Amino acid sequence: MFISKLLYFLSIFGLVVANTITFISLDEDARDIYSKHKLGCKEGDHGCEDLKILSVPGLANISLSLPRGWEGNFYSVPAGTPNRTGMLAEICSQGFENKSYFDVSAIDNPNDHMGVKQFWPANDQNAEVSGCITFPCDQTYYHPDDKQTKRPTQSEEFICTLGNADLSKHPHLAQYHMVYSEEHKKWRPMSAPSVPGADVSFLAVPGVPAVTRSTDAESSTATHTVVAEKTDATDEEDAADEGVTSVKKQTATPTLTAGHSHSLGDTVAAKHTASD
């Protein structure tokens, strides 16, 4: 109780370091990201707020600052369409032993194959990955009370991919397709295929400023940049070993909204629980 109150007061004065989730769009479709905190929060509890709707343009990335201790989920809908639940990226940040637990859940809407894809810690060399490049797969929760299988992490930065990449047009996006390497016994980015004539007009090339894609984001204070492609072979190998990507960091200010609730229960801490 004392620690929770201390974190709450520290957060008021901006002394609690926030987590960051970077949503990466792998296709040309714009999406709105909704969040729902866990059920059972009492008014004034730290880390129980819903976050304002976040707009993610196609083929862009946007990062969201997440309060420490926040527990809940994120899902996407096509931009401008009614809110409805989808494939969920779930997180319990700074939970047991101050570690963050995460997963991708298909329990609420297993038919959403256009939204959340994969979800993983961005700066954890031994990070595991939840979710699928192509659904269904065995890296996603489909049934209530499925046991947590992904190791928790100390990482405060996460990556969540959205949509289906057309690698014939955008081969660099293969770096955001995470696959398990039996040889290395860890998750690694898929190698980018060599596709003649692929569109690289919006890539950030070393020595050349990155192209930016700006939108009227009335529901967010975030800014956008395209994803940078590593072209140096050594850098690519380093990135693969660490299971991370060179995403330029931006932030979005969390803002309270009303009327959202979702039962994460003890999903990411022990067993998976479906929502109401």
Quick recap:
This protein has one domain (18-242). Helices cover 8% and strands 23% of the residues.
Provide the number of structural domains.
1
Low-confidence stretches: 1-15, 199-276
**Widest β-sheet, arrangement of strands:** 4-1-10-8-9
Order of helices and strands: HEEEEEEEEEEEEH
Amount of helix? under 10%
Radius of gyration: 18 Å
Number of strands: 12
Classification by helices and strands: mainly beta
Mean pLDDT: 72
Shape: globular
Proportion of beta-strand residues: 15-25%
Please work out how many helical segments DSSP would assign.
Answer: 2
State the major sheet. Answer: 5 strands, mixed
Distance between the termini: 28 Å
Transmembrane segments: 6-26
Keywords: Membrane, Transmembrane, Transmembrane helix
Region (Disordered): 212-276
Biased composition (Polar residues): 212-224, 247-260
Question: Which short descriptors sum up this protein?
Answer:
276 residues; mainly beta; 5-stranded antiparallel sheet; globular; disordered N terminus; disordered C terminus
Can you lay out the helices and strands and say which pair or pack?
Blueprint: H1 2-12, E1 19-25, E2 31-37, E3 54-56, E4 61-66, E5 71-78, E6 88-92, E7 101-105, E8 116-121, E9 130-131, E10 157-162, E11 178-181, E12 186-189, H2 233-242
Parallel strand pairs: 1-10
Antiparallel strand pairs: 1-4, 2-3, 2-5, 5-6, 6-7, 8-9, 8-10, 11-12
General description of the model:
The structure is a single chain. The protein is mainly beta and 276 residues long. The chain has one domain (18-242). It is built from 2 helices and 12 strands; from the N terminus they run αββββββββββββα. The chain has helices spanning 2-12, 233-242; strands spanning 19-25, 31-37, 54-56, 61-66, 71-78, 88-92, 101-105, 116-121, 130-131, 157-162, 178-181, 186-189. The strands form 3 sheets. The chain has a 5-stranded mixed sheet with strand order 4-1-10-8-9, with no helix packed on it. Strand 11 (178-181) and strand 12 (186-189) form a beta hairpin. The longest helix is centred in the N-terminal third of the chain and has 11 residues, at 2-12. The chain is globular.
